[in-house]
Fold each of these.
Amino acid sequence: MLNVPSQSFPGPRSQQRVASGGRSKVPLKQGRSLMDWIRLTKSGKDLTGLKGRLIEVTEEELKKHNKKDDCWICIRGFVYNVSPYMEYHPGGEEELMRAAGSDGTDLFDQVHRWVNYESMLKECLVGRMAIKPALPKDYREEKKVLNGMLPKSQVTDTLAREGPSSPSYDWFQTDSLVTIVVYTKQKDINLGSITVDHQGDSFRVETIIKDYSYLIHIGLSHEIQEDFSVQVVENVGKIEIVLKKKESTTWKSLGCPLENHNSLLPKKDTDLYYRKCQLISKEDVTHDTKLFSVMLPPSTHLQVPVGQHVYLKLTIAGTEIVKPYTPVSDSLVPEFKEPVFPNSKYIYFLVKIYPAGLFTPELDLLQIGDYVSVSNPEGSFKISQFQEMEDLFLLAAGTGFTPMVKVLHYALTGIPSLRKVKLMFFNKTEDDIIWRSQLEKLALKDKRFDVEFVLSAPPSEWSGKQGYISPALLSEFLKKSLEKSKVLICICGPTPFTEQGMKFLHDLNFSKDEIHSFTA
């Protein structure tokens, strides 16, 4: 029997990544929007050409279906007839044809941001590839009940070949507490490196070690209380998670291993994991942008590192859709400073509402007390890029300002070598400028910070800069405090803005190491 993937996002191993470069979209014909495609998939029309049958597909058979009107693509072992989807694909038909008649998994991971292939293409499912993946060598070993001894896993073999030093874990107990200790053997571990979730009897600890994910995933043998504590000893990379027993009884084992327990995998190959967060508040910031505040469950520890994003997930017309958003502070000015983790359970998002969009109007319809699913943090930005930095330049357009909020706060409070921070903020009109008064107040309060607003449609009385990103604007803006100052330039905005800005920066002889683009 074929195992049909469920209608959820993302399914096994189908995490969506924010890539290092933008993806070009093509104009779609009238009636070819995402909502139109969802309607078509629910119409009952046979989109596979197989009249509801599911088949096992050999490599030879897959290769035969490589034309626009007969295009099959394999993604993670499942084969889809994407011919009906051609005209609905935002990246254009040519992008899909690059994978025609072949395994398109790698291409999919490179260029897609939020498309849920399992849900979007469910009605296009032809079947499964005939070759079945082998079980890992230690599969039977991993099924044994945990007793405090470390079971063998793929960790050691993987790390010996290409990863960091092999992490491990142990546990011990008192009458009232159970302590799980993770030994990462890395010195750059902090509270933002670890995410902990307790749902039902499932206890999940994910630790990010360089570009790898080390997972502890256990069905606990006894009940615990909701709240727990997480501590990190940074100089040795040791993590301690202290659980409170519901009953003062001796545990004979920690529990049973669940999926991917005690595994270390490249981060890019792991699944996104979600927890439901409650909407606590939303308030207007501009005429079309709002500040949303959500509260993490009491049984979750999650701290989003500076410069990283999460995915928000909603069910729309029966299909789960996700979008990436970078959390911000609740304010820029000190009197409203964001609470210090780990005590804070709140995450803030600045979201522009697009009335004709699919996702943001649904997000805006949420009432206080409703829930939205929030993923683990993602992103390539590393705090180490700030090391010994002296001049920080931020280039933002519209809601591309969001990753700059925590970057700005961290730079002004946590970098002793910093001489100046400059923000050039591009918008269409004055009404579009997010947190203008707060930015101006921050510039008055901290002499290292300066902000310049650039409008593309300014009023007649506007005395500031106007136009679009250009070499002339940048060359004047990007003046170092000293000739040999160590510089970092961060840029974020719509894809054309970011791509053009990156080109101008390279033309101005800034190196790759001096530039970080946030793209989503």
Amino acid sequence: MDSTAPDFQPRTFSIKLWPPSESTRLMLIERMTKNLSTESIFSRKYGLLDKEEAHKNAKRIEDLCFASADEHFKTEPDGDGSSAVQLYAKQTSKLMLEVLKKGPGTTTEPGAPVLEVADTVFDVSGGKRAFIEAEEAKELLSPLTKPGNSYKRICFSNRSFGIGAANVAGPILESIKTQLTEVDLSDFVAGRPEDEALDVMRIFSKALAGSVLRYLNISDNALGEKGVRAFTELLKSQGDLEELYVMNDGISEEAANALSELIPSTEKLKVLHFHNNMTGDEGAMSIAQMVKRSPNLESFRCSATRIGSDGGVALAEALGTCTRLKKLDIRDNLFGVEAGVALSKTLPKLHDLVELYLSDLNLENEGTLAITDVLKQSAPQLEILEMAGNEITAGAAKGLAECLTALQSLKKLTLAENELKDSGAVMIAQSLQEGHPDLKELDVSTNMFQRSGARCFAQAITNKPGFVLLNINSNYIPDEGIDEVREILKGGKNSLEVLGPLDENDPEGDPEDDDEEDGEGGSDEEKDGEDNGDGGLGSKLQDLKVEG
């Protein structure tokens, strides 16, 4: 399931963890605000907070938890801050859950009485993953057997159902299927032999066939074509779906064909997510057919699906029918220039686009410029643009800069792992210096620039209100250049805290050396190494989870 509240996972650190920097605290507030104001299983039960109310609650929660953890830190025996961080995260998670369960209009202090409402959500996904057999299933699912229950949304994720448990669940689900509107069966056969897993899927599919669902999640089940066809009865009966998630399911060409074949109508579909599959070009053709039949699509994710140029072109053309699209994520595929050019012809039709994720598509300068040339005319409302890892050089910087000048609503820009060097970096930075009042994050790491580029990026963001993170790591900035950046940030409206880590910067590096090595660089660690100077605390808190 697409997580609405990220997962907190402790790491081991060898340096002082407490207190967090101001930028880390601001980033945590931003993430809580997003979690509190994003539709989730909680919001569907208790109501959705608007962004203003979510921000007020997030700020209050962070203030309370910081004060509590800081007091704890003063008496912490080991003194490195690790237990303070644990307390900070745990209390934040707990108070977020309280706010979510109170619903809109809840800026009161934690602990206020919660109004009792009829249960409409049945969710067994909390806690550790567990294998479920017949006896456990009878107890676990007993609330669904109570006469007159009001359950409309069920989530069986993170529980591995065996054949015995499925035989218990089948009749129960069949008895309530007419009242169900949302079903989450993600990761519900983990660790089972293939034959048993397929039988479990068939039992659930038969039991739920004929239900009128708006939401269906069958992610993380290693489906393949056999798994998709095991859900035949359920899928064939679904003509009113608004959200469909089929992520990390081993969706091959054959599985994609089966999926497109079995679902009778996707006309009402608003969300379609296919992340992390092995679809390839031929499978992309089937997905493209589904997309063409989904004119109301608002969020489409087909990232990390091994789609090449032909499939990319087919998808790009199909997306032209989705004129209500707000979020497009096709990262980490093998599109290349031709598919990039095809996409550029579709983008002007997407007038509501707010988030665009185009990293790691092998666009090169030609594909990049084709896209940015239309974006500057058609997407002034764009808030997030990611184009990392596309072999963009200084030769494309002028056109890219002209586009960025027009995108005044940007909140996050990612151009990491390209080859801008100083000449390109200066042009990009200058395009961001004026306006862009809502810009919060800028990632230009791993771009071979040196002192001039670093200085210009610092000047571009130093006076932007609410700016959170400047990532210029993994470049060739000399020590005096780093000193200049710090002085610029100290002298601006933003503090030095907005500067990300510089642990991978090479002050003695030479971009010409990279040219000789075909410009290759940028490890996985560099992609994920945003710790905001807190020794990793930022990344430790960035995946905070609401724990129910």
Amino acid sequence: MAFHAEGLVAIIVFYLAILAVGIWAAWKTKNTGSEGDRSEAIIVGGRDIGLLVGGFTMTATWVGGGYINGTAEAVYVPGYGLAWAQAPIGYSLSLILGGLFFAKPMRSKGYVTMLDPFQQLYGKRMGGLLFIPALMGEMFWAAAIFSALGATISVIIDVNMNISVIISALIATMYTLVGGLYSVAYTDVVQLFCIFLGLWISVPFAMSHPAVTDIGLTAVHHVHQAPWLGSINSLDIYTWLDNFLLLTLGGIPWQAYFQRVLSSSSATYAQVLSFLAAFGCIVMAFPAILIGAIGASTAWNETEYGVPDPMTKKEADMILPIVLQYLCPVYISFFGLGAVSAAVMSSADSSILSASSMFARNIYQLSFRQNASDRELVWVMRITIFLFGASATAMALLASSVYGLWYLSSDLVYIIIFPQLLCVLFIKGTNTYGAIAGYLFGLVLRITGGEPYLYLQPLIYYPGCYPDENNIYVQRFPFKTLAMLTSFFTNIIVSYLAKYLFESGTLPPKLDFLDAVVARYSKEHMDKATLVKSDNIVLNELAPVNPRHSLTLSSTFTNKEAFNYVDSSPELSNTEDN
């Protein structure tokens, strides 16, 4: 393949433009946040993100390189097709559910990160445990899409994959480093526009190529391969449902999502942003679906790609850049490449900032240095943004199973963090004992179910499992959802059991070593003033909460435990008095 100098120039111009927008956003908002609030401004952008920018940045967070490449691949792969392209509908439903049920309670209570309510109710040690799957999800996701970007660029302009990965990661890390959420949000606006324009410009040219059969015909008839609409085999229904629930429910408990929710100017705006992003995800999926359909409708032996086809060459995951390269004019393929690059950076920067935010606030500050100055926290965030960006880049270059690691970590987000989030926000009376038990049960059930991408053989063989070509058993049973439900109910059962045993006197108070039931107040459990600042919340949006006067089992189980001692906070008391 020839080296395309003009393609390299186009990519450089695009990257410089994105970097310029990121630096401009950082300069424009450098004085945002009062003295002592700069770290929070970096995390949640001063909580003044409007509907336009907020809608764009939340959409761009989901519409990444994995989203558009994965959607095109699912539509293209024979035997799967559009029926298995679950991401557009799954993520859109995830955003709708997040807006309906999760955005308002999280934003109205003035949290700064997704882990705040866990540390508030379950303690800092439990927050640290939940940080592990959250960090793994963000880091492996960033590494996976950096890897995809490098392969895409190497396909179209034939430059070294490692160089393209390093440069892309450096640019995304650089503007995130200087501007935090503001830079990420403003560059997302530009990147989403590039994705939309770049892919839609490419589609008509690819569709009109002489080697492409009418996609309406190939949707339902076998021409070059099986119809691209696809079908769901009766044996695979449970697998399909398991994956769909993982996308829909497991797409909610991500810091990248809640960072946008918590940065909105009000709880109502947070809900509206979620609904706008759900619509945006559907709209942005259409060109990727069409490109996958075009790939399935192409006689590849009539193109410069030649034979065998991408599926036979095991390049189905690269169908989008292959269509851009071989079915579009050169100058059009570069527009499409810019779109893919934009998609990757719009997700990678969000993941890097999310991981850094959780570490700086929930691990460094709330667990170890509660008296850390704002300047100290800013520097911790900057250092960790660089370190996490470098780590994601290293994994993209060195790990052979980045996607396998991301699949496993995203499963852990669904199986461990989602049920914990349900309990901490909506189930009244759960405590640290139940949270730890649910965490461990979910983790064990997921790992013992195996992971073909990592060549991890299962220890539990559920009904319907079968060996793949590598003799690794694949589960048809929806064991991921089973693990999630087990984690959820274990949390509730163990929490209520522990509460009963301690409050009935069956167990002496000294055995409450986590201070989760008997102790009225513990340093392990942080009060509301530690987690939120009164000037970041609208007081009339807060649900009225009264202090707990009794710890008897007969008292009504409410989530008031999470907001005890509000009246003991001078900062909040003074605000309410005013």
